[in-house]
Amino acid sequence: MSVELQNMKWAIAVSQFRSLRQAAEKLNVRQSTLSRRIRDLEQEVGATLFERTNGGTRLTPAGQEFLEAARRIIEETELMISRLKTRSRGESGRLTVGVHASLSAGNLRATLVEHRRAFPDVEIHFVDGSSEHLISDVANSAIDVAFVAENYPGRDDKSLSVWSERVVVALAEDHPLASRDVVHWSDLRHEVLLLPQRGPGPEFLKLLVTKVGHSDPCRLLRHDVGLDRLLTLVGAGWGILLALEGATGAVYPGVTYREVHDADGPTRLAFRAYWRQTNFNPSLLPFLAILRERYPDLSGALAPG
């Protein structure tokens, strides 16, 4: 048995108006066409749905039962179609974002907040990791877009230069360097430095080697834990921590932040957004469009390819 949705909708209209003539006028169809469709529907379901009298039409008990089910079917169908349309436009669905820096402040946080306001029905799933792991996940379609502080010019992925973040150092409030307005790289040579194995730890190590000028620039304590635990260690006096300005929104007892400078001023790490050229997730394009709006001078790099 195949029952058309339109016939069910027309039967619901007849039940509401209790008149074939008024229902036909509302539906903008001929009364004879509507009457024939109702008869066809009754034949399809094998039951009389309406009692026809000179005073109009009334639902039979079978008609009441049928139309209750028909209303549910139509509502669920319309909701399903609406969900599919919004998903195809990227207005709902799921977006997986790879990050390796803190979201407590800065451009990434602002971008994500703006996207959430514009597309509240898109579920964003975050994946944390090193630059290499995130780029690999993009290539393997495990994540949709990754923000990393490293340039990978040989990748087949699409990419966009987005923002840069200042390098800061997290210090215990009673540390001698906390009395200064800024910290220079040479000041770190004799410090105990907590180095994260997650996130931008490898980039920080490259900076240390470059800025301090030694392959083993200072005493390093590597930890495979998150930023919150590292900042707790800083506050407890275990060492100091290189971080990015996006981490400064995280307030921890006994911890303060200072910019790290070289001879030219603040040190910055540049970020790029990477995504796979053949990624067809509808939620990705609106996200990239927001990046284009926030960085209009680089919008030419955003062709979906």
TrEMBL record:
SUPFAM superfamilies: Periplasmic binding protein-like II, Winged helix' DNA-binding domain
Keyword field contains Coiled coil: yes
Domain HTH lysR-type per the UniProt entry, residue ranges: 3-60
Pfam families, per the entry: HTH_1, LysR_substrate
Coiled coil: 24-87
Gene3D superfamilies referenced in this protein's UniProt entry, alphabetically: Periplasmic binding protein-like II, Winged helix-like DNA-binding domain superfamily/Winged helix DNA-binding domain
Molecular-function annotations in GO: DNA binding; DNA-binding transcription factor activity
Gene Ontology annotations for the cellular component aspect, listed alphabetically: protein-DNA complex
Alphabetically ordered keywords of this record: Coiled coil, DNA-binding, Transcription, Transcription regulation
PROSITE patterns (alphabetical): HTH_LYSR
Family to which the UniProt record says this protein belongs: Belongs to the LysR transcriptional regulatory family.
Protein name, UniProt field: LysR family transcriptional regulator
